[in-house]
Amino acid sequence: MYQKNPHPQKAYRITMTIEDAPGPFGFVEAAAFYQITNHQQCTPIEPIAGVWPSQKEDSVSVVFQKIDARTYVATIYSDGMIDADYYGKGPCHCQLTGVGVSLKASGQKIETNFSPSLEKDQIFESRSKATYFWRGGYPRSKVDDYPDTGEASADNYAEPNRRDLFIVTLKAERLEP
């Protein structure tokens, strides 16, 4: 429904570094997420149910380029979605809320989906975020397509597992036009 900006200007480089992975990641997908900040003012309400049937969020695919065995880079845009009058109620304002990555050994549905992310404040402040994942979940957990979002600290894992982790670091950097 919402339109991708064909000429975005506000670019950020996202560098992803993978350390001590138990194997390669043949499947790397990502998306930049956007939210309409004035959703209730710019979208119609469903007259009978009294709810907003239109979605409040949308995303734009992000392509990571592999630099070497452990480093990938991508470019996202804070102005990646167009602010527009989509419903005839005034312009909807879209704001970048973050970027999420999906890593799998080969891309099969049964494999663990390792999912590091960066939130908007980390992006806008050009910060980095390390996410720790248990190596035992690679290439797959006991649950098919298990969504592993990792932990912010190795200390969040039980003591025996702390020595069996890999780290995915996402770093944002503002690119000047």
Give a structural overview.
By secondary structure, the protein is mostly beta strands. It has one domain. Helix content is 5%, strand content 41%. It has a five-stranded antiparallel β-sheet with strand order 4-5-1-11-9. A four-stranded antiparallel β-sheet has the order 3-2-6-8. The protein has a two-stranded parallel sheet with strand order 7-10. The longest helix has 5 residues. The chain is globular, with a radius of gyration of 19 Å.
Please give the structural blueprint:
Layout: E1 11-19, E2 27-36, H1 39-42, E3 57-62, E4 65-68, E5 71-77, E6 94-104, E7 113-114, E8 117-119, H2 120-124, E9 128-134, E10 147-148, E11 165-175
Parallel strand pairs: 7-10
Antiparallel strand pairs: 1-5, 1-11, 2-3, 2-6, 4-5, 6-8, 9-11
